[in-house]
Amino acid sequence: MHWNAVAERFTPPARLAVIGDPIAHSRSPQMHNPALKACGIEAQYIRVQVPVGQVAEAFRQFAACGFLGVNITIPHKFEALDAVDVLDPLARQLGAVNTLAIRDGKLYGYNSDGPGFLRSVKEVFGVEVKDLRVLILGAGGGAGRAVAVQSALEQCPRLVLANRTAAKAEALAAEVAKFSPKAEVKVIPWTDEAVAAEMAGIDLVVNATSLGMKSGDTKLLPAEALQARHLVFDMVYRAGGETPLLTDAKRAGAKVVDGLTLLLHQGAISFEHWFERPAPLEEMREGLRNAVMT
Ligand SMILES: NC(=O)c1ccc[n+]([C@@H]2O[C@H](COP(=O)([O-])OP(=O)(O)OC[C@H]3O[C@@H](n4cnc5c(N)ncnc54)[C@H](OP(=O)(O)O)[C@@H]3O)[C@@H](O)[C@H]2O)c1
Question: What is the pTM of this model?
Answer without folding.
Answer: 0.95
